[in-house]
Specification:
By secondary structure, this protein is mostly helical. The chain is 71% helix and 0% strand.
């Protein structure tokens, strides 16, 4: 159910912020900051980069606020910014094998738990035990940036295919295809891991 009162409050904040009201923008940040950080960390898997992307997202949003045309939810507009920044960051760092998952294990587990707090798991929701959290991160790191982002949005944030397609500005069929490929690669990773440990 759509909370129209909250929706109207947010629209008013955006309009005020577009008119140069910094306090209204700060309130918008407060509404979305935790989710934006979780989404960034889910994609990049690195605390420091997630913090950088978090800051860049809101700087970017402020500088581009006049381009927001109220043709979709403000949160979805922010999602597009954070995902694009995260994908770009991954692509820049991919060459150097930059992820150190052992260092980020505790942060990842805490982030994963928070990401699930406000949503009920569906039948296709990935259930991750604490014991394999690190392995999930390693498996995700091997995915191409876009596949990783789609997988995180779908399985860690419960976003629908239509929402993901809107965020990435691509066809739903493309999202489904990339999600299928990501899932297959993860299955191969865990099958190989299982075989190595048996």
């Amino acid at each position: 159910m759509v909370d129209h009162k909250m929706e109207n409050f947010e629209i008013q904040l955006v309009q005020n912020a577009q008119n140069g009201n910094h306090k209204a923008f700060e309130k918008l940040i407060a509404l979305h900051d935790k989710r934006i950080y979780q989404l960034a960390f889910g994609v990049v898997g690195n605390i420091h980069d997630a913090q950088d992307i978090y800051q860049e997202t809101f700087l970017n949003a402020w500088s581009r606020l006049q381009t927001y045309a109220f043709d979709g939810a403000f949160g979805a507009w922010l999602n597009r910014i954070v995902i694009n920044l995260s994908i770009n960051k991954l692509r820049q760092k991919r060459r150097r094998k930059w992820l150190d998952f052992t260092e980020n294990k505790d942060e990842f587990n805490g982030w994963r738990n928070r990401a699930h707090t406000d949503s009920s798991p569906g039948p296709d929701r990935l259930v991750i035990s604490e014991e394999i959290g690190t392995q999930v991160q390693k498996a995700l790191a091997d995915l191409p940036a876009k596949q990783r982002a789609i997988f995180v949005m779908k399985h860690f944030h419960g976003m629908k295919i239509t929402e993901i397609a809107g965020t990435l500005e691509c066809a739903e069929g493309t999202v489904k295809n990339q999600l299928f490929r990501a899932t297959q690669k993860l299955k191969i990773h865990f099958k190989r891991l299982y075989n190595e440990n048996t």
